[in-house]
Design a protein that fits this description.
The structure holds two protein chains of two kinds.
Chain A lengths: L2 E5 L6 H12 L4 E4 L10 E4 L21 H9 L3 E5 L1 H8 L6 E3 L7 E9 L15 E8 L3 E3 L2 H9 L3 E6 L21 E5 L5 E4 L17 H11 L2
Parallel strand pairs in A: 1-2, 1-3, 3-4, 4-11
Antiparallel strand pairs in A: 5-8, 6-7, 6-9, 9-10, 10-11
Helix pairs in contact in A: 1-5
Chain B lengths: L11 H6 L4 H11 L5 H10 L2 H4 L4 H4 L9 E3 L6 E6 L2 E9 L1 H6 L1 H17 L4 E11 L5 H21 L3 E8 L8 E11 L14 E6 L9 H4 L20 H15 L4 E6 L4 H13 L2 E5 L12 H6 L5 E6 L4 H10 L3 E9 L3 E6 L2 E7 H6 L26 H10 L7 H4 L10 E3 L7 E4 L6 E7 L2 H6 L1 H17 L4 E10 L6 H20 L4 E7 L3 E3 L5 E3 L3 E10 L15 E5 L10 H7 L11 H16 L5 E4 L4 H12 L4 E3 L8 H6 L6 E5 L2 H11 L3 E7 L3 E3 L5 E3 H8 L2 H6 L2
Parallel strand pairs in B: 4-5, 9-12, 17-18, 24-27
Antiparallel strand pairs in B: 1-2, 2-3, 3-6, 4-6, 7-10, 7-11, 8-10, 9-11, 12-13, 14-15, 15-16, 16-21, 17-21, 19-20, 22-25, 22-26, 23-25, 24-26, 27-28
Helix pairs in contact in B: 7-8, 7-10, 8-10, 10-13, 18-19, 18-21
Classes of the chains: A alpha/beta, B alpha+beta.
């Protein structure tokens, strides 16, 4: 699998993502500068976390208009696989590549803590190494992760199986109204969503920061291992 | 020469307004041989401020030990540099931003983080961890909530955005910090030992380059403000507080590190306190050269700025670099790629003067040697503090169980999760022990087996009772916290926060604290490699008198693990024997038990025997290295039972406790704050005890791991759920969250 990580001014989790990808692919991912107007030959494009352009406008709003986004759109249209984590998820929604938006956390404070995610479908390139209902741990670190979309969009996402992950208790129970379980107040406790072709995934928590027992666990590793298996050529 | 740039005439009255004494102004006149211009007076006043010149503290700071075989650069550079092995160096420093954080808590704290980050990456290090030592006023004070909220948001807002994990620190509350909170920010970075950058300028004719943000009118005379007491007009000083832009800082870090990978840089320094003035004066002064600045070339955010304003501006996220002339365009290309301002604003000369030109006029022309050499240096009068009265006989009015519950819920011991959870502690993917998981935060050095152990420590109430003991204790506790993770302590940075040096009793505290710190540093081979002094931490009491903060010599400690996978935490494991290491005499003077149960802050602080400290700590580290210890926690605030409660709350199990030491009152055993002690959990208690005996270290079995709470010798069990509920209540209640 050839992976590339897009670096915007203010991106700050590109190194974490590179470590996770290197761990499963055995090689360095390409680092792609935001000002580029073409992508190298890739199987996976990753938009990592951070504060692109300082996030002084809406999170991700400036990055969605960066030069690199034009070839990324073409990559998506051609059926390419894209993972957006945290700021990367925000950028994908701002770019219209994923539905919905991410508002300020319900408690109006930055949240840096572990959360538990329940896998909502297990047959996508991002989730194939889990089963539906599996629960895994991931660190979250964001101020704007409160997922929202209009009723019709939510219905469509649910009906078409495009919710990838939900915030849950360690035992898998989902409780949208419980601040412990659904810390940022996301609608339907949605933590990650998929595009219609299931090839673009956006999520707020950071699986890339939990791929080494030394850092507290390998809960995030199945996501990257699954991508390698799905995208090997 | 223009002496009339501003509206006011330059005279002794204006010099006083700028914070210079009559005598200091007299020295300015004799150095210059004429009346200085407004810009020149501004340069003298900030360079000779307490903040920049350390005029009251320098003679005492020199007494601290600063060398060891592993120290690469001690005090005098932008930050301290120590050898951590494998050709790498850790670069670190702690610095205060106290005054700004009272006036405008968010920006004060945010720019504190930004400033200390620059001190570290200016030396060539990628910042890998931030810590913060915070002191707030009484929780009952209506201002406290506003200040806590702003400071925590500010630290998070800046650190989270630049992508440096905030991994540790400490928080105290005390009425002595009402109106004068302490915000001490520490940054740790990693660099290759052969790529460390210093600030001494060299090469006559070499260009002087300005990079980063544009210069505005913010922060003018910030260094002077930080060098005076607060008065009722403190909040009117808001314009002297700088405004931070962490996004630009992030770009600046990446651009500087990219430039540092080339051979373009001769010298580099950030523009911190006193901005362009201190950076240019210090770089030229250290290099023994002159410097000419052309202010017309300085990138400016506002129109019509005068030379005086530009030289004294403390606008954030700016650096000054001397580059090799044939690498100027390479450097420009890097900064343009990162969309940062880049301007050649001057060059080095052989005149030995700083010459500042603006709009065709020479606005300042000052000889650098006397500006540095004749900077004021004071040996201020000191008054010795009376020795604290030992604590007399005392009763236990509430019992052990109730006392524990009250202690773990009190402001100084309550869970800090509400604060930590607003700081990104995992960015970078190297955080091995997050806040609260071990006595020191553990951060892996990417791409190696090395780990850094990081902590900040100080017990201000001990320092007030006995500044010498308190100074020693702060160093010893930092050392102990590093040892408890299995790391080898290397060096410290100090952040000395005190009241007005013009009060003999405050100077007495200052001198005594430094003596105590020096003793501990020497006994523990734990030298001071960088630091910062913050004086004039005073507020006005309602009756008009000036009230000093508690003496607070905050210590930032750094240690290294050759194999980071061997680091241990404090969480109670599922099984094992719980053993106390170190002697217990039941010292309740200045203890939190005394304060929380009796409402008293008296007695002598616990004594420190530095030889025992060293012996116990070396023993603990050897046992951890040998793999004989499963968990370890030092015994500090609140004593043994609080330490056990912290281990149980962080862990998977509790503990069934044996009876306390005979011949000692139970509360003195469980809550005494005797120093140099650790609680360990081991799987082979006999082997551990035998090793201790042969090392001459006292141990005592406290109990066995069992259940999920603490079972007291009385048979009563305090469940983990109950402890956690009490422990986690304080911050959300204070902050109404």
């Amino acid at each position: 699998m050839k992976a590339g990580i897009v670096v915007f001014p203010g991106t700050n989790r590109e190194r974490d993502m590179a470590i996770a990808l290197r761990a499963v692919t055995g090689r360095d991912p390409a680092m792609i500068w935001h000002g580029e107007t073409a992508l190298p030959d890739l199987d996976l494009v990753v938009l990592p976390g951070g504060f692109s352009y300082g996030d002084y406008l809406r999170c991700g709003a400036m990055a969605a208009h960066a030069p690199i986004m034009a070839p990324i759109r073409r990559f998506a249209e051609a059926g390419g696989h894209i993972l957006g984590v945290c700021n990367g998820f925000q950028i994908l929604t701002e770019a219209g590549l994923l539905p919905g938006a991410l508002l300020r956390n319900g408690a109006l404070r930055f949240l840096s803590q572990d959360c538990h995610l329940r896998v909502e479908r297990g047959d996508t390139p991002f989730t194939r190494n889990w089963h539906v209902g599996d629960v895994f741990r991931a660190p979250m670190a964001h101020g704007d992760g409160n997922y929202i979309a209009d009723d019709a969009t939510i219905r469509d996402l649910e009906d078409s199986g495009r919710i990838a992950f939900r915030y849950a208790r360690p035992d898998g129970r989902v409780d949208e109204s419980d601040r412990q379980t659904n810390p940022n107040g996301s609608i339907k406790a949605i933590a990650g969503v998929l595009s219609a072709n299931l090839r673009i995934c956006g999520m707020m928590p950071h699986p890339e920061d939990l791929v080494d027992p030394l850092m507290g666990g390998e809960d995030g590793k199945p996501l990257f291992e699954g991508l390698v298996e799905a995208l090997v050529r | 020469m223009s002496g009339t740039t501003g509206q006011k005439p330059v005279d002794e009255a204006l010099a006083r307004e700028f914070g210079l004494s009559a005598e200091e102004y007299g020295n300015v006149l004799s150095i210059m041989g004429r009346t200085p211009s407004l810009t020149e007076l501004g340069i003298f006043s900030v360079m000779w401020s307490e903040h920049c010149s350390y005029k009251s503290s320098r003679v005492w700071l020199r007494t601290l030990p600063t060398t060891a075989p592993w120290v690469i650069h001690g005090p005098g550079e932008n930050a301290g540099v120590v050898d951590i092995g494998q050709g790498l160096a850790a670069i670190f420093k702690m610095e205060s931003h106290n005054h700004p954080s009272f006036i405008e808590p968010y920006q004060g704290a945010a720019t504190g983080v930004g400033g200390i980050l620059r001190d570290v990456f200016t030396m060539g290090a990628r910042p890998v961890a931030n810590l913060n030592a915070l002191r707030f006023g009484s929780p009952e004070n209506p201002q406290t909530r506003r200040i806590v909220d702003g400071v925590v948001r500010g630290i998070g807002g800046y650190g989270n955005c630049v992508g440096v994990p905030t991994v540790g620190g400490e928080i105290n509350f005390h009425p002595a910090y009402d109106g004068n909170p302490l915000v001490n920010a520490m940054t740790v970075g990693i660099a290759r030992q052969d790529r460390i950058f210093l600030s001494a300028a060299a090469g006559i004719g070499n260009p002087v380059v300005y990079v980063g943000s544009k210069t505005g009118r913010d922060g003018i005379h910030g260094a002077t403000m930080s060098s005076s007491e607060f008065d009722e007009d403190a909040l009117a000083k808001r314009p002297t507080v700088q405004v931070g832009d962490p996004f630009v800082e992030k770009l600046l870090i990446e651009a500087c590190l990219e430039l540092m990978a080339t051979d373009a840089i001769v010298a580099i320094q950030d523009m911190g306190a006193a901005g362009l003035t201190s950076s240019s004066v210090e770089m030229a002064g250290k290099g023994g050269v002159g410097i000419d600045l052309d202010l017309d070339a300085v990138p400016q955010r506002e129109r019509g700025m005068t030379a005086y304003e530009m030289m004294l501006s403390e606008s954030q996220e700016r650096m000054l670099i001397v580059v090799h002339p044939d690498r100027t365009e390479l450097a420009r290309a890097i900064f343009e790629k990162w969309e940062l301002d880049f301007a050649i604003i001057g060059h080095l000369t052989d005149t030995g003067h700083i010459v500042v030109r603006h709009q065709g006029r020479v606005e300042a022309d000052i000889p650098l040697d006397p500006l540095a050499d004749q900077a004021p240096l004071y040996r201020r009068p000191t008054a010795p503090a009376p020795a604290p009265e030992p604590l007399g006989p005392i009763t236990d009015p509430v019992g052990i169980e109730q006392a524990l519950i009250r202690l773990i819920g009190c402001p100084d011991l309550a869970s800090r999760a509400w604060v930590w959870n607003q700081y990104d502690s995992t960015v970078g993917g190297q955080t091995v022990k997050r806040p609260g998981a071990a006595d020191a935060a553990i951060v892996k050095v990417e791409g190696t087996s090395l780990g850094l152990a990081l902590t900040t420590d100080c017990t201000p109430r001990y320092c007030r009772a006995d500044a010498r003991q308190g100074g020693a204790q702060a160093v010893a506790e930092a050392w102990r916290n590093i040892v408890a993770t299995g790391a080898r302590p290397l060096a410290v940075t100090d952040n000395l926060n005190f009241g007005s040096p013009e009060k003999p009793e405050v100077m007495g505290q200052f001198v005594a604290a430094i003596e105590g710190m020096g003793e501990a540093c020497r006994a523990l081979d734990f030298p001071v490699v960088s630091g910062n002094v913050s004086l004039y931490n005073e507020t006005r009491a309602p009756d008009g008198s000036s009230v000093s903060i508690l003496p607070t010599p905050a210590i930032g400690g750094l240690g290294v693990l050759d194999d980071v996978s061997r680091a241990i935490g404090l969480a109670m494991p599922r099984e094992g024997t719980v053993i106390l290491v170190g002697a217990t005499h039941g010292e309740l003077g200045q203890s939190l038990w005394l304060r929380e149960i009796h409402g008293r802050e008296d007695g002598a602080p616990p004594a420190i025997d530095l030889a025992a400290e060293r012996r116990n700590g070396d023993f603990i580290r050897q046992q951890i290295e040998a793999g004989r210890v499963v968990a370890c926690h030092d015994v500090s605030d609140g004593g043994i039972l609080v330490a056990l409660a912290e281990m149980a709350m962080a862990g998977e199990a509790g503990c069934v406790l044996l009876a306390p030491q005979s011949g000692m009152r139970p509360e003195a055993f469980w809550f005494g704050e005797d120093q140099s002690r650790y609680i360990v959990v081991v799987s082979d208690a006999e082997a551990f005890a035998a090793a201790a005996t042969s090392a001459g270290v006292e141990t005592r079995v406290l109990g066995e791991v069992a259940g999920d709470g603490l079972t007291l010798p009385s048979g009563a069990t305090i469940s983990k759920a109950r402890m956690k509920a009490v422990n986690s209540a304080f911050f959300p209640a204070l902050m109404d969250d």
